[in-house]
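Feature request, filed as a ticket because there's no other form

It would be nice if the structure record came with a short human-readable summary line next to the tokens. Right now we just get the raw output. Example of a typical job, pasted below so the devs can see what we mean:
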Amino acid sequence: MVKTVVVGSLGAFEREAQDIKPNKPITYRKKLFRGQREDKPLLPGLFRRYEGKVHMIQRKESELLAELKLRVPTHTPLRPENDWDWLSFGQHYGLQTRMLDWTEDPLIALFFAVEKSPSNPTVYVYPAPMGRLISTLNDKKSQDLFNQNHTRIVSPSVHSVRVRLQKGWHTSHALHEAPKGKPKVVIPLLRMKWYQDHICVIKISPSAADAIVRELAKKGVNHSSVYGDFDKICTGINRDCGL
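Raw output as currently delivered:
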């Protein structure tokens, strides 16, 4: 069983995010957090879309990546330099990929879980082992991008304001082998034994969500600080200054 706790306040969440331990001890490089407004399976958007048509995934993601490189202006600041970062860049701005977003900041994960009137706010805690880590600053090889044997952890370079603000990481998911003669399958993380033993779940009482949003704002964690919507900041300044 996945270790699960329920909290009803920001203070209780912060304590659990710091102290919660997985069912089995593990030596890890970084503790990562993922916030969701609903307790949906930990499965990337592209895999979820083609769950019943797995044979289409690799062809479709190659097409998506090629189009992204073509359409992003050449002189964009911090333009990605390798395919891992391109995939991360697209993921942060809504492209369907085989990646899931994580953050090293528990309060940012909590913000994602409690914003927009969540029905079942949940934060996942993943103690990420060093052996599965890809640092895109050092790993320029991308030939295995779409042919992974297991889920890997991606530490992207700073390719955008958003990835810096969100202290972003990713898990990049694999297509799993099926019985002989059958196509590969997609498997959500928490349906695999290793992840059941090592990922923890913090559930937040939905009735506490609005209060937690306000408390997070007092700590400087809000829509603008997480998404980098600086136009909204300037619009608010104009309004507050009577313009």
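Something like this underneath would help us a lot:
Residues 57-71 form the longest helix (15 residues).
The longest strand covers residues 30-36.
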